[in-house]
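Example 5.3 — Carboxylic ester hydrolase
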Amino acid sequence: MVLFSLLYVAFSAAIAAAASLQRVTNFGNNPTGINMHIYVPDRVAADPAIIVALHPCGGNGPQWFSGTRLPSYADSNGFILIYPETPNMSNCWDVHSPASLTHGSGGDAAGIISMVTYTLQTYDGDAARVYVMGFSSGGMMTNVMAGSYPEVFEAGAAYSGTAHACFAGAPSATPFSPNQTCAQGLSHTPEEWGNLVRNSYPGYTGRRPRMQIWHGMADTLVRPQCASEALKQWSNVLGESFTRNATGVPSGQWTQSLYGDGTRLQGFFGQGVGHEAQINEDTLLQFFGILS
Ligand SMILES: *[C@@H]1O[C@H](CO)[C@@H](O)[C@H](O)[C@H]1NC(C)=O
Ligand SMILES: *[C@@H]1O[C@H](CO)[C@@H](O)[C@H](O)[C@H]1NC(C)=O
Ligand SMILES: *[C@@H]1O[C@H](CO)[C@@H](O)[C@H](O)[C@H]1NC(C)=O
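Solution (predicted structure tokens):
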């Protein structure tokens, strides 16, 4: 009985000590009033890497926290997860405003950058290992963040999203918006897409984020052409040209499109995969350099 009680106490203590998603207020400049959640694992690494994880339309911080297995990888690898949350536009990210599409100008992008700065300072994070990932509207915003803030992100992974500035000129970026030109596969030349990125931060000559672009071939909400357009864009920006396709990578119905040697730009197209493409945490974290 005594042993049982001791075990019970130890077990309860372990539960009580487990990290959980926390809301953070007052994280800095936040022109559009978005919200911040953070997941700091119990055994956080020294100089931890940071991943910004962006929810889809209609989502929120807690929803996306349970939407992928990234938190359990944070537990085993010691990185920190930031879950931004937008309450605007049916909880879709501001991927269309000139403010988000211009370095240092505002929009949801500026609030997200404040969350990164806050986390780097509060947890002594590694500024050279800050990453961004997201699905659907969050995938669109991943490309926006990589385009507007190239100096902040080492790499990004966009699932079922659209190219940086694809929604520029549209009044909003929701599935209910009358203007679906972008999501239906708006096409530009690689140079035009590249210029949209370069014009978001005129004069910037530093390194650019490495990118992974994922899309289901059977996606009708955000067409797979959107991924081809994003790959044209990053191919131009990074100066990496298409090398080859590898079928069955990482598995089953997926085909990996390699650009250059694949270390800076990779596409993934899922045969028969719809809008809700499953997040492949292993392939994402390997690309980020967090898993070997
Ligand atoms: C988001 O909502 C807040 C509060 O209503 C508003 O001040 C802000 O301008 C909105 N941002 C966008 C991008 O719509
Ligand atoms: C619709 O959105 C696209 C960008 O996605 C933009 O180029 C175009 O001007 C918009 N059209 C209207 C009528 O707002
Ligand atoms: C590579 O694979 C993608 C997705 O299946 C396909 O759209 C593209 O045409 C392929 N490219 C080549 C050169 O085979």
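Remark. Residues 32-33, 88-89, 94, 97 surround 2-acetamido-2-deoxy-beta-D-glucopyranose (ligand 1) (CB under 6 Å).
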